[in-house]
Amino acid sequence: MDGYANLVLAINQRMMRREVEDVAELMHRIQSRLPVEEAARTCVLSKSWLHAWSTIPTLRFYVLNTRKRKTKSMKLVEVERTLIRYLRDSIPIQLFELVIDIENQELASHAEKWIHSVSTKTCLKKIFLSIFPSSVCALFTLPDEILLGENLTSLRVLASRGTVSVRMTTSHHPVIKCVSLRELHLDGVCISEETLNLILSSCSLLVKIELSNIYSDSCEGFKTIKVINLPFLYALSIGLDGWQSTSLEIRDVPNLGVFSYDLFHSARLWDPHPLPFNSNAHSISLGRNVTHLMLGGVIADNAGLDMIKSGFPFLMCLTLYLTSWMLGSFHFTCASIKRLSLQSCPKSLIDVQVHAPKLLFFDFHGDMLPSLLFPDSSLWYIKLSLSLNLPVDADFFLKMREALTLSQKCDLRVTTRNNSKLPFNIEDLRTRLLFPPATNVQKFEFQTVEDECLSDRSPFFDAFFEICHPKHVYAKRDMMDEYSNHFCSLMLSEMTTGTTFWSHHLKDVQIRRHKKWETLTDCPRSFLHGNMHFKLYWC
């Protein structure tokens, strides 16, 4: 019997001695926190546990496509029977979760009926819906009753974006009674601007709002999203298609601490120039309590950085997706920031300078490594993620070696293309190096894209191991071929033949196999494919 069952058995023994009050409620809490299989196994412990399982106020249904259609049909019958029993016997439902693939209009109608029947329960506190239309013939509309629950505290609707939309409601002006709502998460949902703003204005107790990839039923998109007079709001996240020139009106949110605003550039088909975050079209007053800020696709130049510096005096964590960045340099000053992340950086970015005396963590993701300078900081950790389109020259590795001197610990992640093209002379790199190999690299993750026969040579790793000696290497299979893993075959060859300079500096190489560490040379060659985890011991 495993740990879960042992815990349940011990509690059951205490219940038999009547040392625990509100037995049914306690059993429900235990079952709701266990995995479904483990929770179901508690039925065999006693009649009390069996009764508790049949009346648990947490309902989770997963109606997903499988190869066996009979399995899905049986699941539909199970959902119908369970809901009929709960409604007939007035069994409380506090949490309702439904994950479903919508294949046809009949199944859509079933799901709408289920949601409608549950939404009218006054005891309902949480609704989690994940709806994935898989047929152009299926139309799905959430019932208006979903917004009537006076005790509803959490509403989450996740829908896939495709040819079929999942509409929030049929009415542009629905009745809103979910005044106890604390958390709202809408992802991929079609909703009218009037309905959205009505929800936000009616639910004054909201603490967390996530609006991701939502879209308007109007061909013009959202004109204005209003987040006004929410005194308890702490986290606000808004992600929209870049083609929608949506203005934001945010004010009277005195406790807002986390703010995220992202324009998705993949869908910008009509308007190649999204509305900047600092545009006069926005009316934003976030207050001085924001400590975590994420902006995507809306910061293009120094004017945006000046806005951040002046508007967020207590900022501690900043994440910028520089997909719209137009300058070759990124110079930023902030006295309070501790974590800075620059994502999706273009090749045109060649210089990064950050003046931040409290900065501890720096994360960079881009197509090429710029020169990095942190003159006032005592960095503890740097993470560099690069998508390299080879060839790269000796200057690249020299710049990488300088970057590794900036912090106490480093993690590196590199994806390479055109791997056969590394024309530089390795001896030139060795003579120009000013430092020995860095030993502060904790993890190096490497992956190729269409590996071009590199198994018999290692110009990239010859250069890489000249500048650093990582402790762990996560070698991922080639992105286009699951049986190709250049690093695995290369490492085995180098450890057995020792044909390169760096292989003489390795005392031992171990590989994680079946959750255990084994010496690389003792592993069968047939095992060395797919994703591999290596531990390197250097002299």
- Note poorly predicted spans: 17-22, 266-272
**Which radius of gyration do the C-alpha atoms yield?**
28 Å
Work out the number of β strands: 27
Structural class label: alpha/beta
Please describe the topology of this protein.
Layout: H1 3-16, H2 23-33, H3 36-41, H4 47-54, E1 58-63, H5 69-88, E2 95-102, H6 105-119, E3 126-133, E4 140-141, E5 154-159, E6 166-167, E7 183-187, H7 193-202, E8 208-212, E9 224-228, E10 235-241, E11 247-251, E12 258-264, E13 283-284, E14 292-296, H8 302-311, E15 317-321, E16 329-333, E17 339-345, E18 351-355, E19 361-366, E20 371-373, E21 381-389, H9 394-403, E22 409-417, H10 426-432, E23 441-448, H11 459-467, E24 472-475, H12 486-497, E25 506-513, E26 516-519, E27 532-538
Parallel strand pairs: 1-2, 2-3, 3-5, 4-6, 5-7, 7-8, 8-10, 9-11, 10-12, 11-13, 12-14, 14-15, 15-17, 16-18, 17-19, 18-20, 19-21, 21-22, 22-23, 23-24
Antiparallel strand pairs: 24-27, 25-26, 25-27
Helix pairs in contact: 2-4, 9-10
Task: Characterise this structure.
This protein is α/β, with parallel strands linked by helices and 539 residues long. Among the domains are: 1-56, no CATH class; 399-539, no CATH class. Helix content is 24%, strand content 28%. It has helices at residues 3-16, 23-33, 36-41, 47-54, 69-88, 105-119, 193-202, 302-311, 394-403, 426-432, 459-467, 486-497, and strands at residues 58-63, 95-102, 126-133, 140-141, 154-159, 166-167, 183-187, 208-212, 224-228, 235-241, 247-251, 258-264, 283-284, 292-296, 317-321, 329-333, 339-345, 351-355, 361-366, 371-373, 381-389, 409-417, 441-448, 472-475, 506-513, 516-519, 532-538. Helix 2 crosses helix 4. The longest helix has 20 residues, at 69-88. It is globular, with a radius of gyration of 28 Å. Mean pLDDT is 82; it is low at 17-22 and 266-272. InterPro entries: F-box-like_dom_sf.
